[in-house]
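$ fold --in a.seq
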Amino acid sequence: MNYLESLYWIHERYKFGIKPGVKRMEWMLERLDNPQNNIKGIHVVGTNGKGSTVSYLKNALLANHYEVGTFTSPYIETFNERISLNGKPILDEEIVKLVEIVKPISEQLDIETDLGTATEFEIITMMMFVYFGQLRPVDFVIIEAGLGAKHDSTNVFTPVMSVLTSIGLDHTNIIGDTYVDIAREKSGVIKVGVPLVYAVKNEEAKAFINQVVAEKHIKGIKLGRDIQVVSNNNEFTFRYKDYELEAIELNMIGAHQQENAALALATLLEMYDRGMILLNFNDTVKAIEDTTWTGRIEKIQETPTIILDGAHNLESIEVLVQTMRQYYPDRKIDVLFSAIDGKPIGRMLKSLEEISEHFYVTTFDFPKALPLDTLYESVEHDKRIKVKDYADFIKNYDGDLLLVTGSLYFISAVKDKLKK
C-alpha cells in the first residue's frame, strides 16, 4: 500500500463509528507485544482544553531538550499531525509502515473474535503506540484522549502523570447527559500511584472526582486549591507549592488559556520534584509563553481581522464569547458558523448571537455536518445570512472582524480550502 491507499484504509473505518471500550485495543496490542507498556506517557483528558494543554507540555519539554511524541485529535491541516515527533508530523512512509503492521492484526480481530471491527480511532491509537513503543522511542509521549477516558481507546497504559483539563456537557449521547455521568467516565484516567492534575468547576463533578482521588489514595493537584492563577489582564502569576512564577504572558489569549498553561506548569513541576525531569525555569516559561495551537483563537489575517476558533460545544462557545468581549470590546464582530450533528446548537448559537453584528451560516463536506437550511432555521439573529461558498466568502470578507467557529472539523476544512 502507498500513502494514499493507507489513508483510505484508515478513513474507511470511520463507518464503524464510535464504540466505547478497550477490549479490542487490549486484544490487538497484546498481539503486538504490548508496545504501550514501553512508553513514559502523560495522559491528558477533558471536555475542553486538551489540545492546548498538550501543546504547552510538549513545547516546555522540548525547550528542556527532551524528545517528545504527541498524539492529538482531530487533525487540522494534515492527517500525519495526529502522531507527531518533536512537534513535527511523522512522515508519509512512516504512516505506510504503521498501517502494514496494524492492518493484519485488525483483520485477525475480525476473524478470531466476536469483539467487533476496530474503529478508525482505535486503529490510529494503535499506530501511535506501535510508533512510540517500538519503532521510534522518545523520552515522553503526551497522549490526548479521544472521547471520555474510562472507555477511551487511549486508556490502555499507565502514565507517569494524568491531567484532567475540564468536565463539560459534550458527547452526552455516548457518555452521559449529566456532569456526574461525564465525571464518572473521565475518572477512568485516575490510576493508583499516578498523580492527577485537574481543573473541574462544576460542583457535583468536582465532588465526584475528589471522592475517586481519595478512594484511590493518589496525589490530587487541583486548580484553585493547590494551583493558584492570579490574572492581571494579559499576564498572570502562577503558584504551586513553594513555586511562584510571575508576569507570564501567553501568546494564546483568554483566561481559560492561563488555566490550561497552569495545569501544564503544575504537571511539569510535579515531575521535576519527583526526579523525572530536569527543568530550566526560564526556558520552560518562555516555551509556554510562545506556544500557539492552530484553530484556537487563531488570527489568520489582520485587516480585516479574521479569527478561527474550533469551539465545538456549549462550554467552549461560552469561553470564546467571553474572550472576544474581553479582547475585542469595540469591534464589530461578524460570525461565520458551521457545526456537526449531536451538539446543543440552539444554546451555542444563542451565546454567539449576543456578540455578532451579522450571523452567517454555512455547511462543509463532512459526514455529520449539519445542512445549511437546518442551521439557518436554528438562528434567531435578525441579520442571519446563508453562505454557500465559505472559502470565497472568507477570502472576500470586507467587514471589521470575522469570527469563524462552530467545529474543529469545520476549521480544518476552512484551512484546507484557504490553503488550496
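$ fold --in b.seq
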Amino acid sequence: MPSRILAVVIDCRRCRELATFWCAALGYEVLRRWQDADGRTYVELGAPGRPMLLLQPVPEEKRVKNRLHLDIVPDDGGQYDEVERLVGLGATVVSDESRHPWVLLADPEGNEFCVLPPH
C-alpha cells in the first residue's frame, strides 16, 4: 500500500511571522500549534482541500538553496499581479528570466518558491 503526503514542512526560525506570510499568500489559516518534547512550537497551516504546510522551528538560518520548493499559481489574476501581491507581503524576487515560465521568489526567511502563470 502506498503512502500519502501529510504535509509539506518548511524549516524556519520565526514560525509565527512565517505563518502570517504563508497564510496571507495561500489563503490558509493556522490549524494548530503544538510543542514537541524539547519545547519547540510547530505551526500547522491549511485550507479545505489543499495540502497542509507545517512550519518547523530550527535554530539555524537558511544557508543554501532549497532541495524542495513550492510551485504556486494564482487563483485569480495574472502571474505578475500575484508576484506583486506576494512582494507586498514580504517576499523578494530572486530571479525572473524570460526563458522560464516561472518567477522565483523567496519568503521572508529566504525559502525559495516559484509563481507560475494561471493554469
